TrEMBL record:
Pfam families: GDE_N_bis, MGH1-like_GH. Residues 305-609 form the Mannosylglycerate hydrolase MGH1-like glycoside hydrolase domain. Residues 32-222 form the Putative glycogen debranching enzyme N-terminal domain. It comes from Aminobacter niigataensis. This is Glycogen debranching enzyme. Signal peptide: none annotated. SUPFAM superfamilies: Six-hairpin glycosidases.
Amino acid sequence: MAKLDERHLDPAVALAMLGDAAPRNPHRQFALKHSDCFIVTDDYGDIRGRGDGLFRDDTRVLSLFRLLIGDTEPSLLGASLSQDNIVFTANLTNLPLTPDKGAPTPQGVIHIERSRLLWDDRMYERIRLSNYSAHDVELPLSVRFEADFRDMFEVRGSTRTKRGKAFDIELGPDHVQMRYEGLDELVRQSTISFSDRPFALTPDRADFRLNLLRRDSLSLFIEVGVDHLGTPSRERHRAAAAKARWRMRGKRRHGANVHSSGRVFNDWLSRARADIALLTTDLPTGPYPYAGIPWFSTAFGRDGVISALQMLWLNPGLARGVLSFLAQHQATETSMFSDSQPGKIMHETRKGEMAVLRELPFGRYYGGVDTTPLYIYLATAYAKRTGDLSFIDLLWPSLNAAAAWMENASQQDPYGFVSYARAAETGLANQGWKDSFDAVFHADGRIPKGPIALVEVQGYAYAAYGGLAELAALKGEDAKAAHWQACAEAMRISVERHFWMEDRNFYALAIDGEGKPCQVRASNAGHLLYVGLPSPERAQLVTDQLLSAAFHTGWGVRTLPDDELPFNPMSYHNGSIWPHDTAICAAGLARYGARDSVVRLMSGTFEAAVHFNMRLPELFCGFTRSPSEAPVAYPVACLPQAWSSGSVFMLMQASLGLEIDGFAAEIHVTRPRLPIGIDQVSIRRLSVGNVAVDLHFQRVGDRVVAYLDPRHEGLAPLIVRS
């Protein structure tokens, strides 16, 4: 068992170690997903084997897949995803073709349309060829392919001293099967099937000679799955597309929908909602938003909770699914390898060969210090949003166990903080949301000694205790309510006393194992505002700095201001912009009444999304915004990423000042604001108690008014505070 090289947790570093080829560009990559299967290709529709591929259960089952015309890459016209994220389409054309006999074919007369989708662990592709030349063409078309069956962590850069056995590739008249037996004794296989028989089929290539009549078209169908299930065809392709679209329509109908008066702004809303639906996987416990494609297409505790919090006001069913899954996988024993302790909530789960063999601890890993308090906080927020105490009753034993873990962790710390120190060298050294190896440091750049108490984690614990106290009071458990309220107050006092830096008017990033604060200003303090821990005076001081040029680039809030020593706008966590982090900070500003500043942050985030084709990546570089320049992409960011997609909805809620009181079945709106350039926003099918209503926000002069649709007046009280 090798020690984890934590540089590989940042895929940009890991992939750079693999060779001299250029790293992938996330905004030029296209992803499709269904269940635990996903594919990432370039805009040609090709897989080139560098971080991209077709993946199933954390294993790359197709590592090369390239279309050639006459041994030459065709010319790209354009590529796109359908609005519902079901179909990827690449439009290509030919370069000049000189056959052995007959007239040459000039460039740009053959249109090549690649149309692809995933359904039921299977890739379906149609290659439609149209001849716009004045003569018939014998078109030489080739498909190159490989399957390396690499574990996701190998793709990300981890090395293994030993791998399993690759079988000889089996060739049929119209299909090829590749198989690999892992060290876990599981045989993984990938089969490529063609609608037409190739005139030549080898273990890594299929060659076709297609007679394409002038002004005519023909289609070649390809399927890639576990087995050869028959000859691919137009009917099979259409049937899979119909099923995939029907399933996606069902996902997108869950919860309320947001619509605005801005056409381009609506494109952002629609793409974000489609991406969340794409990443949401239907598990036996309910829907769960997988973190992101390609590196994190699995259930993460922290990411799932934050994504559910972002969507809670619109779709509380997502939070219910996340809570159910995490409760089912709550730790019941102590394990140094998996960093588990009774009551702790899972950080990550994986299904690949390396996880099964326990070469790495991520099969079911608990090395996240913030996931447990966030889990409790989500449960309390879900109860407030829905009034669904019957579900809370089912979770109550799990919530008590999670609270007991927090209290036990606090008892190990001299200041009563929830801190972390990895239990085994195979685990993560840093266990907050900024979990890269260099994300926590002292002002002079030194790496602190553990255990580490992160400032935002104490805020999450404060909110968890306070929410539990309210739930216990509702359940008539007064002793528990008083105890947890006391825990919340003790945490608040300790944070204010030990994290506040008087000389910098800000909260320290962390406190190390020697009781010394890491006197660094970072966006983590914005998460304290989100949960409402700071005093109003200190909250204002933090707000002023988060909105200053050191933090706010014009595109969003940097994770680290540009005047801190380790600042690097191209780093993973030390100066980059994470949209979900900006959204949490904005929600914190809104909590303290700075709603106009929220509108400013939302405007910058929207304008960044426009430059990224309406799809916010996991992160992007933290360079200061300049006139006429676009935000700078991070080379290997996940795209899509659930909590980046959900950021627009957290920002929107913070701008509108909208809260749902599920116990009273009331809608509360406080000092609403609309995004810049938007005069009207409608929330359709917003659930309040047992009813669903349409809620409208309208700009009237310099005010924003909120009102229920006339059809729904009287169904739910609307309380507006201006």
